[in-house]
Write a structure and sequence with these properties.
six-stranded antiparallel beta barrel; 366 residues; 6 helices; alpha+beta; 32% helix; 30% strand
Length: 366
């Protein structure tokens, strides 16, 4: 059987044909890119629409007023239009947005509008639960000051200083009052001058900053200062402290009246509670609990240090203070550590120190 093969001859391509083919490819590629961008745009619009619905739901849940919700919507549309829900769910985003809006308002020269905006933003922050900084955690702004906190201050140029207490805080200013009303009232302080501040934050660190005295109010007497967003932080402790965020079971054991803690590890607990340990050092820890502790008790607990192992010890209460939401912040000092616990804690703290020095290297698997 004989087979004949046919030869197919394509016409020779000229420059016009090549250009047309190239344009077709470019067109198809452009259509593909356009279709992908359209798909992403539609997905983004659907996500943003869903986030706005979440904003409304959160506003209702937090009992925001109509005017407060209107302000939230205006700020979200202006500053975070692509992620509106972050304004009501992320503390850093809310703070950054508040700073930008206040700066824009102040630039217009309307002092009254600036003050009113500061108060309204503070009300919103509190309703959203973004006004609380966990006990012993570092702060990064004077907006994180709380009522009753004591600060030392004096004119930056020199002169007599004194201790004052925080009377209140809004998003525009923080307000100070005399520790003892009517006593040691400064008579030579002038509005518009700079002041230097020093503050010891309980179980945290010493903070220093400078800011301007905006005005002095009467009835009641209050000194009103601009906020600062960069605070110099100095940790001054016998033992280096690191962050620790674990909820643990705590046994309350009777503290000896003579403060002789020998044998405290075998004392019978009188109660058990839950608490969240917020920082840890070789010398002790800070813990948040939901109720006031009885007087004269020690805290016995096991600290889960993950791959390093558990560390069990007993600590005496050094101090306690009322926190936002009715919680109690407690500082405790170890009076007994079980065998190996001290080494495990020291290793944990050391690895966290090395991590802090090596940042932004990978976080240790603790």
């Amino acid at each position: 059987m004989q087979h004949n093969a046919a030869i197919v001859l394509f016409p020779a391509a000229d420059s016009t044909t090549l250009i047309i083919v190239a344009l077709c490819f470019v067109l198809l590629f452009g259509v593909a890119i356009g279709a992908d961008r359209m798909r992403r745009w539609r997905e983004d619009q659907a996500r943003i629409k869903a986030e706005w619905q979440s904003v409304g739901a959160i506003a209702r849940d937090k009992s925001l007023s109509e005017s407060e919700l209107a302000l939230v919507k205006r700020l979200a549309e202006k500053w975070v239009p692509d992620h509106p829900v972050k304004l009501v769910t992320t503390r850093a985003v809310f703070s950054d947005t508040a700073v930008k809006e206040l700066a824009a308002t102040r630039a217009k020269g309307d002092a009254r509008a600036y003050r009113e905006l500061g108060v309204e933003l503070r009300d919103i922050r509190e309703r959203l639960g973004m006004d609380y900084v966990p006990y012993s955690k570092p702060i990064d702004s004077t907006r994180d000051l709380y009522e009753g906190q004591v600060v030392d201050l004096g004119p930056a140029s020199g002169g007599k200083g004194l201790a004052m207490r925080v009377a209140t805080v809004d998003e525009a200013f923080f307000y100070l009052a005399l520790v003892t009303p009517g006593k040691d009232e400064p008579v030579d302080w002038r509005e518009g001058t700079d002041f230097s501040f020093t503050m010891w934050r309980e179980d945290d660190a010493v903070y220093r900053w400078k800011t301007r005295l905006d005005r002095i109010e009467d009835k009641p007497a209050r000194w009103v200062f601009d906020h600062v967003h960069q605070l110099a932080r100095e940790q001054k402790r016998e033992h280096y402290r690191v962050r620790f965020d674990q909820t643990v079971d705590i046994e309350l054991v009777p503290a000896p009246m003579d403060e002789n803690f020998e044998g405290i590890e075998s004392a019978v607990p009188v109660a058990r509670i839950r608490g969240r340990v917020t920082n840890l050092s070789a010398g002790g820890f800070a813990v948040e609990v939901n109720q006031a502790l009885p007087s004269k008790v020690c805290l016995r607990l096991t600290l889960p240090l993950k791959r390093i192992g558990d560390a069990r010890g007993t600590a005496r209460v050094v101090s306690s203070s009322l926190l936002a939401g009715g919680r109690m912040g407690v500082r405790a000092e170890f009076v007994h550590l079980n065998e190996g616990a001290e080494d495990r804690i020291a290793k944990y703290v050391l690895e966290w120190q090395q991590y802090q020095i090596a940042r932004p290297a990978a976080k240790p698997a603790l």
